[in-house]
Amino acid sequence: MSDNAISVQHLVKRFGTTTVLDDISLEIPRGQVSCLIGPSGSGKSTLLRCMAFLEEATDGSIFIEGAPLGFVYDGAGKRQRQSATELRKVRSQIGMVFQQFNLWPHMTALGNVSAALRRVRKMGKAEAEEKAMVQLRKVGLENRAGHYPSQLSGGQQQRVAIARSLALEPKIMLFDEPTSALDPELTGEVLNVMRSLAAEGMTMVVVTHEIGFAATVGNQISFLDHGKLLFTDAPSKAFAKPRHPRLEQFLDTYLDRGASTLV
Amino acid sequence: MGFDFNVILSKQDALVSGIGMTIFVWVVGTLFAAVIGFVIATARRYGGVIVDKALTVPIEVIRGTPFLVQLFLLYFGGPYIGLSLDALPAGLLALSIYGAAYFAEIFRAGYQSVPPGHVEAAECLGFTRIQIIRNILLPEMALLVIPPSVNMAIILLKETALLSLITVPEMTMTASAIGSQEYAFVEAMVLIALVYWVLVELAGLLGRLAEKKLSRYRLAKA
């Protein structure tokens, strides 16, 4: 048990014989922005999805604000699945933002953001929509409330998705490559929303390839490779030379793509 | 003997009641079939591997045998296993089961058409399973499910003609009887063919209207 917003303890995830997460332990303090970086297939997205119980870990445990997520251990040390009601309660502390936005296409932006307030919090329509508007305003989209996702740009869709997650006032926000499906311009508007969230003191876990964002907004950098957590450090340490050799190699690929000519 | 509709139209009361019976077994049978099919598809999705596999068998058997054979087995064979039904309930039951097997597959495809991420988003927000089905899955699959459902309803309408063979007094039975009595069999068949066709067109029209209403969000312009 710990005092942190999220505590990951000896997490193991296997798909068949492939080990995707290999004994991961990670503490994420409240109010911090924790960035998970690493090459594709390193397990960073799987780790994040485990924190939302979208993937079930094979072993180990995760605590959200001190409460076990997904599984509980009985007196004999045997792992039991949490009841659906328990799970919903623990999950209500977190908001999840996906790479593919996952807005519901048959609802307007306002409908997407107010749905959980109405169905889960059982609010009346007027009250839910009023609260939803507050969140849309926060992401700068109050003038798009009546638009369907098909009428919005990728960046706008992702901002609606962020507003949808914020509507239930979670304590922790999880971001799974939130800008990977966006062009550089749209990426900027989404990152700006995330920056202002971080400035408000929201606890955030961000899986990202935006190294610049990780270095400037992150308080904690975790580098994963082949299912192993190679290190967790403050960005000032993680990115300072001499760097971890695997990180050095990973960062080199960014410059190799021609970006170095711009620097 | 010429082609004379007047003989047939003079039996208009019997015809109208036959048409009424056809519409009744069609609408009720299709509704039951859709509901049972939806329940089967839902049980297969959420009931685990055993339920999924177990439900595959009856679906394949029903899709793999003619409706007429199923109808006869239920009506004439039922009493051997203590299931003695009158013609109408037997016909409705057979039609519902037959349609349900197809609707189960339609809804299975509908469930699969919804991106898993849309469900994950709702799960993360604390929606219950029933809320997810009602508010996310059903509305999202509706557009995909409507055309094959209308198709199925049309097939079921035409299969109701076979209920005449177990003496359900629907319009094929009524028209055959009148046609034979009045020596105007062809006229009777032409008339009911027209009625079947009008009903089919009506079903198609309703389907297109529903599609148009539901596709609002796809066609919406920025």
Automatic annotation (TrEMBL), chain A:
**SUPFAM superfamilies, from UniProt?**
P-loop containing nucleoside triphosphate hydrolases
Provide an example Pfam family for this protein.
ABC_tran
**Organism superkingdom:** Bacteria
Alphabetically sorted, this entry's keywords are: ATP-binding, Nucleotide-binding, Transport
Single GO molecular-function term? ATP binding
**Domain ABC transporter residue range list:** 6-251
Q: Which PROSITE patterns match?
A: ABC_TRANSPORTER_1, ABC_TRANSPORTER_2
SMART domains listed in its UniProt record: AAA (SM00382)
Question: What is stated as this protein's family in its record?
Answer: Belongs to the ABC transporter superfamily.
PANTHER family, A to Z: AMINO ACID IMPORT ATP-BINDING PROTEIN, PHOSPHONATES IMPORT ATP-BINDING PROTEIN PHNC
Protein name per its UniProtKB record: Amino acid ABC transporter ATP-binding protein
Identify the species of origin.
Salipiger mangrovisoli
UniProtKB/TrEMBL annotation, chain B:
Cite the Pfam families for this sequence. Answer: BPD_transp_1
Q: What is its main location?
A: membrane
Record keywords: Amino-acid transport, Cell membrane, Membrane, Transmembrane, Transmembrane helix, Transport
Compartments (UniProt record): Cell inner membrane; Cell membrane
- Membrane-crossing residues? 15-40, 61-81, 87-104, 136-157, 183-206
Membrane topology term reads: Multi-pass membrane protein
Protein name in the entry? Amino acid ABC transporter permease
The record lists the lineage as: Bacteria, Pseudomonadati, Pseudomonadota, Alphaproteobacteria, Rhodobacterales
